[in-house]
């Protein structure tokens, strides 16, 4: 964290110099020598890694995508080509002379076992997380000890951005799983000196168990998936729970609609919390770390604060792939510049940042590190569940999610897309299941809701079913699934 204390307030020119130097070193000392995928990519495109000296030079390197990682019949272990694997032949052929000389000196001074242990500590995979596999087949990402140290450091930085101090108490509601959000909390809290207790969320202890545990621990921080967090807070309020100790809600694994933040704020203050901060985070399995917002008033987002010594973010035009200007909208492209294990470079995330990226100092915390707009939509891939063709119309279901989350009459909801009579040749049906607050005039509300949905996604639901809250919670799998099932595509494949 000593480097972080200096880095987060450094001048833009200094940050860019650090990033460019790290980029050049990483590509020549790690990526090109030891990544089978990227070495082949560089060679196929006649790219000299020594000429990649600054971020502007990266435009010559072809993009990687989710499809690049997926197994095929010809390459069933394709993702392993993204793992850095040093061996004596590759070291002799591709490592810079200065690195080989240092290795030879260590061998003479300490012996061969010392060399093997040192390389193993840096590169040998010892841990993994995996993608959820909702849209694509799951892909595992491997971590070496070096990556674990980076995850600890990045997690501690995230807590520092949240203004969480050593000695704080934290409850994590993220499900027990090989997923980034869960482990970022575990390792980050260890590094930051924060007492963090992972309950496993509703699937393990149940909501009642989580509430009872929080009453005993009296945490300052609660972390979890937005949908389950809201469910827990709503349940806690009905039980008259005292959450006056809580100062911060940290939300991860999903985008958080502004309306949902407002509802959580109201619930928290009704249970004694004094002006609680509610933060979103951004992360994805391939990055092996996450980024967060800093404290700002409700309804204002500071953007996701990044770590220019550990990664390069580019914002590109999703159609042309060209880098866009500062603050301009575009697709987020990620490159690790200090990873080991599984590494991606110029990786198109499929995430669209409407406000792009800025190097302007943060107006709330005054950090000078680059920030990515929090207005991110995961809709750039037409095969995504959030971007689906319904009744012949390409529908952005993210808009529906935001619309429903902003409506105070709605307690919970689920969307189901299916075929009439389950016949693959029949028409698409869009069914919306709703649990609304007591006292809502469902007839008037349905009429207003249909008009709002047509205005937002240009498709009207075939049916809106008003259901009791427990039924919707069961449909969602709120306490049985890793993530609640908001949008269910039940059409025959």
What is the β-strand count? Answer: 21
Beta content comes to 15-25%
CATH classification class of one domain: Alpha Beta
- Computed CA radius of gyration, to the nearest angstrom: 24 Å
Taking the sheet with the most strands, its summary is: 6 strands, mixed
* DSSP helical segment count: 15
- The residue ranges in which pLDDT falls below 50 over 5 or more consecutive positions are 379-387
Q: What would you give as the CATH superfamily of one domain?
A: ANL, C-terminal domain
CATH topology of one domain: GMP Synthetase, Chain A, domain 3
Mean pLDDT value: 87
- Structure class: alpha/beta
The geometry reads as globular
Under the CATH scheme, which architecture of one domain would be assigned? 2-Layer Sandwich
Distance from N terminus to C terminus (CA atoms, Å) equals 50 Å
Helix content: 25-40%
Q: Please list the strands of the largest sheet in the order they lie side by side.
A: 4-3-5-6-7-8
Protein described:
The structure is a single chain. The chain is α/β, with parallel strands linked by helices. The protein has a domain of 103 residues: ANL, C-terminal domain (GMP Synthetase, Chain A, domain 3). It is 36% helix and 20% strand. A six-stranded mixed sheet has the order 4-3-5-6-7-8. A four-stranded antiparallel sheet has the order 10-11-12-15, with no helix packed on it. A hairpin with a 4-residue loop joins β7 and β8. α2 crosses α5. The longest helix is centred in the N-terminal third of the chain and has 23 residues. It is globular, with a radius of gyration of 24 Å. The N and C termini lie far apart (50 Å). About 2% of the residues have low confidence.
């Amino acid at each position: 964290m000593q480097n972080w204390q200096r880095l987060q307030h450094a001048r833009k020119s200094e940050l860019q110099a650090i990033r460019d130097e790290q980029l050049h070193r990483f590509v020549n000392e790690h990526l090109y020598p030891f990544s089978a995928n990227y070495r082949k990519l560089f060679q196929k495109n006649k790219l000299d890694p020594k000429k990649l000296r600054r971020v502007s030079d990266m435009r010559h390197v072809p993009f990687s995508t989710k499809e690049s990682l997926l197994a095929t019949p010809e390459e069933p272990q394709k993702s392993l080509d993204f793992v850095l694997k040093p061996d004596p032949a590759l070291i002799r052929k591709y490592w810079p002379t200065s690195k080989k000389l240092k290795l030879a000196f260590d061998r003479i001074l300490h012996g061969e076992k010392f060399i093997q242990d040192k390389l193993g500590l840096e590169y040998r995979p010892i841990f993994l997380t995996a993608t959820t596999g909702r849209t694509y087949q799951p892909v595992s990402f491997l971590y070496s000890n070096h990556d674990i140290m980076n995850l600890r450091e990045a997690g501690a930085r995230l807590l520092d951005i949240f203004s969480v101090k050593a000695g704080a108490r934290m409850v994590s509601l993220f499900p027990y799983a090989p997923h980034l959000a869960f482990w970022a909390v575990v390792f980050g809290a260890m590094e930051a000196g924060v007492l963090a207790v992972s309950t496993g969320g509703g699937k393990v202890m149940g909501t009642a168990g989580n509430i009872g545990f929080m009453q005993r621990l009296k945490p300052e921080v609660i972390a979890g998936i937005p949908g389950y967090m809201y469910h827990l807070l709503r349940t806690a309020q009905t039980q008259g729970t005292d959450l006056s100790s809580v100062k911060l809600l940290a939300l991860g694994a999903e985008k958080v609609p502004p309306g949902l933040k407002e509802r959580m704020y109201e619930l928290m203050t009704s249970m004694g919390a004094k002006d609680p901060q509610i933060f979103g985070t951004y992360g994805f399995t391939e990055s092996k770390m996450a980024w967060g917002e800093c404290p700002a008033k409700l309804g204002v987002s500071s953007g996701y604060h990044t770590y220019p010594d550990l990664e390069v973010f580019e914002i590109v035009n999703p159609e042309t792939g060209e880098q866009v200007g500062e603050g301009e909208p575009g697709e987020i492209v990620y490159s690790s510049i200090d990873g080991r294990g599984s590494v991606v470079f110029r990786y198109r995330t499929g995430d669209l940042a409407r406000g792009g990226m800025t190097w302007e100092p943060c107006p709330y915390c005054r950090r000078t590190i680059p920030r990515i707009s929090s207005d991110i939509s995961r809709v750039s891939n037409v095969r995504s569940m959030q971007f689906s063709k319904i009744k012949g119309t390409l529908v952005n279901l993210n808009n529906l999610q935001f619309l429903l989350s902003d409506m105070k009459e709605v307690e919970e909801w689920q969307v189901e897309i299916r075929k009439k009579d389950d016949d693959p040749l029949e028409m698409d049906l869009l069914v919306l299941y709703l649990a609304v607050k007591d006292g809502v005039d469902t007839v008037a509300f349905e009429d207003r809701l249909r008009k709002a949905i047509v205005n937002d996604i240009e498709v009207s639901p075939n049916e809106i079913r008003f259901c009791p809250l427990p039924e919707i919670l069961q449909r969602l799998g709120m306490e049985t699934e890793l993530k609640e099932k908001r949008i269910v595509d039940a059409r025959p494949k």
